[in-house]
Each structure stands twice: as structure tokens, then as C-alpha cells.
Amino acid sequence: LGPTTAQLRDREQAYGAHNYAPLPVVFTRGEGVWLWDVEGRRYLDMMSAYSAVSFGHSHPRLVKALTEQAGSLALTSRAYSNDRLPLMLERLSALLGYDQALPVNTGLEAVETAIKAARKWAYKIKGVTDGQAEIIVCNNNFHGRSTTIVGFSSEAQYRDGFGPFPPGFRSIPFGDADALEAAITPNTAAFLFEPIQGEGGINIPPAGWLARCAEICRAHNVLLIADEVQTGLGRTGHILACNHDGVRPDGVILGKALGGGLLPVSAFLADEAVMQVFHPGDHGSTFGGNPLASAVAAEALSVLADDKLAERSATLGTYFLARLQAIDNPLIREVRGRGLLIGMELDTQRVGARVAAEALLARGLMTKDTHESVLRFAPPLVITKAELDWAVETIEDALTDLAS
Ligand code: PMP
Predict the structure, then answer these.
(1) From what superkingdom does this record's organism come (predicted)?
(2) d(Cα 188, Cα 160) in Å, to the nearest integer?
(3) Which of 13, 114, 366, 397 gives the lowest tally of CB atoms within 10 Å of its CB?
(4) How far is the CA of 141 from the centre of ligand 1 (A)?
(5) CA of 129 to the centre of ligand 1 (A)
(6) Is the pLDDT of residue 148 over 90?
């Protein structure tokens, strides 16, 4: 017998920084949509590591790509070229339709890359005076946790104690195209947004908002940059969430699922007109575009297409959303979502999202509370209808118990 949940959690607390408050389970194994804890209990994964495990745990094709590549070549740095990177870049371009990609590792790094691209584009191409570029962002955004990025967060918890922050960002209400138009100045380089706010609480903007933002940005020569780290690669029922509105942003940020749930891989995608601002030596990272990451990401993009996971997310997401919306329980205020990215807003006067998440966990359904009021349901896209039915029944039972 190995160490118990309590022992492992004590060691984590003793030797690890306390920058998380994990729910009281210790996982040791995952397969598809299922996870097992160290006590042998099984859980349905309904959060997919914030949408990063879209392909399910240990997808055989991805594990094969990872292990084969690990056994041949894992890292050279970009001082030299490797034979796997072109494959990932070609597949990204073919699937997403952009001229070029700049590969990095985590979501925040790809956001930083987009910010750098937008600023340099504003100086070198738009003609903004050096040092004056502005980027417009949305209230309740989440783009990562670097000092620059938390500096333009509207969430006190992310910012408190970490300043000073760099200038050059303006925040407007999410979903308000008039506010975007009003905030634009001749120095505006870009509008950086999430098509659906994930960490902000699964916030879906009003119909027509994104298309109007695209028009406004085009009219003012401002780059439209979509952070699709959480929403991209099939999560919402299209390859990109922006596709729902027929909008093609000037720049797209991908992360999370791009690494197949196996390792961190992210990228900033744009056409040559923007990407030309980068020159040798002005941006990069030791691990960005490494052969191991490239082999897995290339395979992940193939699996996404071969298994039609975006279509699957659309069909199953519509079904799941309707079933969740049909649950009659006084604790539920609203269920909203697109594809398999769904938020259930609870009446916090009666139950907090954390308490509800713990009640679900006790019944073998693993989810995540987002803020005080929202439960997030974002299972791997490989989930079956029967598994979703089980989830609905489990959620229904748990909420009935909590309401009584
Ligand atoms: N952008 C969005 C929209 C995200 O949801 C996240 C992570 N939740 C990030 C960026 C940051 O990604 P990472 O944690 O890999 O830095």
C-alpha cells in the first residue's frame, strides 16, 4: 500500500508553496475521461485541467507520439532546427488558416508574445510613437499570471501585492462594442479578448458583439487578437470560438489542448503582415518549438481532425446543455455555455460553488468552482453520451441533496 491521501496532502503542504487550495483528492492515474485517486476511487473528469485535457487522459496516439519522440530527440533549443517543428507549424497553418505561428510553451507566454507582436506592429507598421502603444482588454479577463498580464486584470486577488505594473492597457466592459470604439485612440495597437471568458465565469458575449468589434478594429487599423487558449481547438464546438461569429481575428493565441494534455505547448498565430515584426534574436524561449512538444502537438492536431472532436463537442455540448438546463432545482440560477464549455451559476445565498464542487466530488464527479457562484463543466471532448447522462443524474442528485 502506498501513501494515503492525507499523507500526500500533508507533504504537499509542508514542502510546496501554498499558492493553491486543491480539493481533497489525490489523483494517481487517468484514462480517457476517468481519473483514479490513490485510494482506488474513480472520478469522471468534468474539468479537463481547465480544458487542456480535451483529448482525454493518456490518449493512445498522443502517448505513442510522446514516448517515441522522447526516445529519439527531445530538445535542441531553437539555435538549431529540428525535424518535428515543421510538421507542427504546417498542421497549425493548415487547420487554423494563418500564415505563420510562433511556438512557445504556456498560455501566458503566448499572450506575452501577442502583446509584443502588437506593440512592435504598432511602432513599425502603424507608425505609433515608440513607447506609446495601447492595448485594450476586457474587464473580468483571464490571460495568465505574468506581472504584465496580472497588471491589466480586474481581479484584485491576481494583482494584490505584485505591482508595480507596466502601463499601456485599458480595460472596457466585456461584450460592449460601443465601449471598444470609445476607448480606441490613434495609439491603440490591439484589442485582446477571450471570445468566451473562461476563468471569468463562462461569460458568453451578446450575439453580434464580436462581429462589430471586428468591424471597429478594421476601421481603426487596430489588431483583433483572440485569446483562444481555453476556447480553441474544438472546445466550444468549432475549431475556434471566433468561428461561431464568422470572425477571423488578426492574431490567435492557442495553448492548453495544443499539448494534448501531456505537456505545455502554446503558440501565437498570425499572418505575415503581423509576424514580419519578429526578427532573429528579439523573442523566443529555450523550450518553444522543441521536438517533443512539436511531435505531440502535431499529433494532437491530427487527432482533433481525424476524430472530428469539434463536431463532437458541438453535438454533445448542445445535448448536455439542454439536459442541465432542464434540471429543476432552486439552487440553479442559470446554465450557459457553448459546445463542451459550460458554466452552471448557483444561487450563492443558498450554496457556494466550492461546496457544490465538493459534493459532486464525493459522488465521483470532478469539476471546478469558478469564482463563488459558477461550477464549470468542461469534460474531455472524447466523452460519450452515456457518460454525460451519468453526469447529469449525478449533478441532479447532488443538488437535490444540497437543496434539502
Ligand atoms: N488565457 C486563457 C483564456 C486562459 O484560460 C488561461 C489559463 N486558464 C491562460 C491564458 C493562461 O494559460 P497558462 O496557465 O498556460 O499560462
Answers:
(1) Bacteria
(2) 27
(3) 13
(4) 10
(5) 30
(6) yes
